[in-house]
Specification:
The chain is mainly alpha-helical and 87 residues long. It has a single domain, classed as Monooxygenase. The protein is 83% helix and 0% strand. It contains 4 helices and no strands. The radius of gyration is 15 Å and the shape is elongated. The relative contact order is 0.18.
Length: 87
């Protein structure tokens, strides 16, 4: 039995979980409750998961981590911009 569908379901759910936060952050610009260190480490980690997915040729990992990276990077950029503006 091919269990790749589990990867697609997991990838879809975990990627979709970031969409509400990304939309809220982009619309409001409010990043006060977001940890810069956590988002920086998370974003780098997602980039490594993307690379690992490429190495394995795993489309669920590749697509989900590419989308999650884009969402996390967008939030991280707003967070960095807000930190810089507050200084």
């Amino acid at each position: 039995m091919n269990l790749e569908w589990l990867g697609y379901v997991a990838a879809t759910l975990t990627t979709l979980s970031f969409v509400p936060q990304a939309i809220k952050t982009m619309r409001s610009g409010d990043t006060r409750g977001i940890s810069l260190a956590m988002y920086a480490v998370f974003t780098v980690g997602v980039a490594f998961w993307f690379g690992y997915g490429l190495a394995l040729g795993s489309w669920p990992m590749i697509v989900s981590n590419l989308i999650t990276f884009a969402l996390a990077a967008a939030i991280l950029l707003v967070l960095l911009r807000n930190k810089r503006a507050a200084q």
